[in-house]
Amino acid sequence: MASYREFSVFDLLKLANVNLDPFTETYSLGYYLHYLTTWPEYMRVIEAPVLTAFSSKIKSTLGGRLMGYMIAKSEGRGESWHGHVTALSVAPEHRRIGLAGRLMRGMEDTSDRKNCYFSDLFVRASNELGHSVYTKMGYIVYRRVLNYYSGKDDEEDAFDMRKALLADTEKRSVIPLTRPVTADELEFS
Fold first, then answer.
1. DSSP per-residue string spanning the chain
2. How many C-alpha atoms does 51 have within 13 Å on its Cβ side?
3. Using one digit for the tens of pLDDT, what is the confidence trace for 27-64?
4. Whether 37 contacts 94, CB under 8 Å
5. Domains defined along the chain, listed by start
6. Which pLDDT value is given to residue 171?
7. Taking the CB of residue 60, how many other CB atoms lie within 10 A of it?
8. Which carries the bigger pLDDT value, residue 14 or residue 58?
9. Which of 140, 144, 98 is nearest to 120 (CA)?
10. 0.85 exceeded by the pTM?
11. Which parts of the sequence belong to the N-acetyltransferase domain (predicted)?
């Protein structure tokens, strides 16, 4: 059975198999460390079980590889106080078995304990699978962010997806905006 546990600094050495896909944003070591020291309650990994195989000549240990991880934080003030998913990634060979949902539920529970009004995340507009997964988890497209993902060879819009949490009893945080915004107009990044 997979192990759902807190993110450790040593997990930074095991991210490669999870980050190898075009929709996963990979950050610098310092960025991950900043999250780990500032918001450790939001940092989680799912790790494969360790299996030991014996043969007459070789003893090898298989498993212990990361299956997925999440980095998140809480930010804002008043009714804008929210949990924000910065990165959620599941290794390609472990997708479609509910791991992303487990990581998201953990983040939402942490955000509820911190009395956040909503949780949010950004997903590439072209990432139909990601959009579908988050929609099934109860997230709505709150707004479109023009050219959110922009770099030397890349320019793409993002969907800012939100889900109201327990503190938002009137669900005001998830009333969608009627127009797209630019990255400069975002309250938090």
1. --EEEE--GGGGGG-HHHH-STT-----HHHHHHHHHH-GGG-EEEEPPPEEEE-SS-EEEE---EEEEEEEEEE-SGGG-EEEEEEEEE-GGGTTSSHHHHHHHHHHHHHHHTT-SEEEEEEETT-HHHHHHHHHTT-EEEEEEEEEEE-SS-EEEEEEEEEE-TT-TT-GGG---SS-EEGGG-S--
2. 8
3. 889 999 999 999 999 999 999 887 666 555 555 454 57
4. no
5. 3-185 (3.40.630.30)
6. 97
7. 9
8. 14
9. 140
10. yes
11. 2-166
Q: What is the pLDDT of residue 167?
A: 97
**Do residues 84 and 75 make contact, with C-beta atoms less than 8 angstroms apart?**
yes
- Single out the residue of 76, 8, 67, 75 nearest to residue 37, CA to CA: 8
Which residue has better confidence, 149 or 108? Answer: 108
Tokens of 34: 């900043």
